[in-house]
Structures are given as structure tokens and as C-alpha cells.
Amino acid sequence: MNSTHWFRNPAARPDAAAAEAAVAHQAQLTKPAGALGRLEDLAVRLAALQGRERPDVDRVWITVFAADHGVAAAGVSAFPQAVTAQMVANMAGGGAAISVLARQLGARLELVNLGTVVPVPVHPDIHDAVIGPGSADFTQGPAMSDDQLARALHEGAAAAERALANGSELFIGGEMGIGNTTAASAVACALLDRPPGALAGPGTGLDAVGVARKVAVIEQGLALHAARLADPAAVLACVGGFEIAALAGAYIACAQRGLPVLVDGFISSAAALAASRLCAGATDWLLLSHRSAEPGHAALLEALGGSGGDAGGSAALLDLGMRLGEGSGAATAVALLRLACALHAGMATFAEAGVAASKV
User: Fold this and answer.
1) Can 155 be counted among the known catalytic residues?
2) Looking at domain 60-339, does it have CATH number 3.40.50.10210?
């Protein structure tokens, strides 16, 4: 991260030779060609991203970035801001959904506190990287200064570097922050040039009146910052949040350093779209885990890959009606990636099994 604008440097290139070798290996396995569907495609894609014919995702790294949002003061969430710090403590204590999923996966879970209204308790699993007591209210001014944006992007990149230093084979970014579906919706609207009414949803459980209030708040923020929204970095600064910017920074650093990413739901996908606009080739490194129940997610998935899917043009891996965040949807999808790798590496070839290959 030597350059001030490091996040605009292009991504690494996937290994085409490793992909070709994986395709050739798939053709020799004891099954009709294509019979395992997307599991075959996942194995080949992971081979290209990991630079080896037989990929693996045994070592998974999960970073959850936490921050509060000044726009929460406009009444855009069903929960008070104190919940952000409380949930970070719950994650550290092992009681949150992502905590349970990380244990089941044998994944490393770290929590990064970027700034909350109520202080986060000290805990060995919480990395303290406070930028401020949450971002500012974007209906009154920018959500963060350019310096704060740079720090948030850097903290995301630092998490990716820790994952790489620990030999991780897959990175998952999660988030926690009351009000962050509003910020993510504003980011998505700015990047996609879509009206808030088309993308904003209930978030943590708003009723129709609450969603209408959220739409009006986003409209106000977008109007205030309209002159700056052509630049994706300015979008993050004007209407984003510390944790959304950190996610974008993590995704960019992973793409530049060659670490595959499994992207979570709506908020993570808004960050992923910002990352893809800042860093050429970043989408090559982004696997999209699931389709969130949040209504704006479909548009983000389409923008990230076409037909509502990943950069390979296929649909998100799961559609379970999830909308929790925390990285939970991505963690749930790890099982599919592991199965894809196990089938690719463990099935016998026609020659090994003494089975006649197809003549077609």
C-alpha cells in the first residue's frame, strides 16, 4: 500500500494455465461432462484464482468490520445505535451467527472496530482501529473526510494482508453497523444511477412507513452530494460508511494480491461494486455467495456479473432468503466451495477406475 491511490491499481490476473489444467482434469473424471454443473465451474475458477490445478478452501479468513452511522439519527433503523457495539461484543463472545458459522467452518474470525457511538469493550479478538465515533450524517455533509476514507480503505487492506500472512485460501468480509443498509443503498444508488425507491428495503425490519422515510433520507443525501458522485471514491466518502469503505479496501487488496473473495449480501455487494469501479479486474476475484432478501441486492448482483451473478456470469450460489449480514451468507456458502474442491480432487479418473470414457 505504498501509493496514496493504491486502491486504483489493477488487480492480479487469474492463472489461465491452472484453469486449463483443471478443465482437462475435469474431463477425465468418472461422470458425464458437465454432470456436476456449477460445482465443476467453481473448481475450475478456484484453480485459476489459486494458481493450482487442484484448489482448496480449508483455510478461511473472516473479518467483520464494525462502525456506526450518523444517518441513523434520521430514524432509518428499527434498532438503536447501541446495538452495534453490543453485537460486536456478542460476536467476540461467540454468540452471533457469524461466530457459530466460523466455528463450524474452522475459520479464523477477527473483528475490526472502526468506530462506534457506544465504546466497544476490550477483547483479544477485537482489533481496535477507530477512525471516529461513526461516520457523519450524510444528509448534512459528507459521511467522512477524504482522510477518513483513506484510513478506512487502509484498514480493509490491512485485514487482507493479515489473511495472506496467515496462509488463508479464501477471504470473507462481514459488517456490523446500525444504519448501514441506508448507507449501502445510497452507495448502490449512486453507483448504479438508480432511484432510492428501487433499491432501499426494510433492512433490520422497517415497516412501509419506515422504508419510505429511508427512501426520503437517501434522496436528500444524494441530492446534496450530486456534484461529486461521478467518482466511486467520492461516493464512499459522501454517502458510505467506515465499514463499507473498509470492505471495499479489503476486496481491492485481495484482488491485487491474488486472494479469492467470497462476497456476502447487500451491504458487502455495495462495497464490492465500489471496489470493482476503483480497481480494474477486481470482479475476477469475487465469488458471490448468495442472493439477499434485501430488494436492492438483485441489481447489485447483476452489476457485478450479469444475469444476477458472479463475474463468470452465473447466478449467486445460494438463495435462502437470508438478510442478516455479518458475512453469514458467505460463510454458509463455503460448504459448496469445499464440496466442489473435494469432488475435483477426490473423484477417480476413467483410467484409474477402469471405466470406459464417453465416445462423444
Assistant:
1) no
2) yes
Q: What φ, ψ does residue 297 adopt, rounded to 5°?
A: -70, -35
Of 177, 166, 169, 151, whose CA–CA distance to 64 is shortest? 177
Polymer length of the chain: 360
Determine the Cα–Cα distance for residues 91 and 331; give it in Å rounded to an integer.
Answer: 14
60-339 has the same fold as 13-54+344-353: no
Say if residue 298's pLDDT is above 60.
yes
- How open is the CA angle 256-193-305, to the nearest 5 degrees? 45
In whole angstroms, give the CA distance from residue 114 to residue 299: 28
State residue 2's pLDDT score.
Answer: 57
Query: Exposed (0-12), middle (13-18) or buried (19+): which is 221, by Cβ within 10 Å?
Result: buried
* Cα first-last separation, the chain: 51
Alpha helices in the chain (DSSP H): 16-26, 38-50, 82-92, 97-105, 146-165, 180-192, 196-199, 208-224, 232-239, 242-257, 266-278, 297-305, 328-346, 350-353
Residue 312 has a pLDDT of 43
Whole-angstrom CA distances from 253 to 143, 156, 215, 238 are 23, 8, 32, 22
- 39 has pLDDT over 80: yes
Rg of the chain over Cα atoms, rounded to whole angstroms, equals 20
- The verdict on domain 13-54+344-353 having CATH code 3.30.200.20 is no
pLDDT digits (tens, 9 = 90+) for 136-161: 999 999 999 999 999 999 999 999 99
What is the grid cell recorded at 314?
452465473
Catalytic residue among 161, 169, 326, 352: 326
The C-alpha atoms of residue 251 and residue 242 are separated, in whole angstroms, by 14
- For the chain, give every domain's residue range: 13-54+344-353, 60-339
CB environment 255-277: b (16+ within 10 A), e (fewer)? bbbbbbbbbbbbbbbbbbbbbbb
Main-chain dihedrals φ then ψ at residue 231, nearest 5 degrees = -100, 125
**Residue 268: partners with Cβ closer than 8 Å, 6 or more residues away:** 173, 174, 175, 247, 325, 327, 330
| Residue 228 confidence (pLDDT) | 97
**Average pLDDT in the chain:** 94
pLDDT band at residue 76 using 50, 70 and 90 as cut-offs: very high
The pLDDT of residue 40 is 97
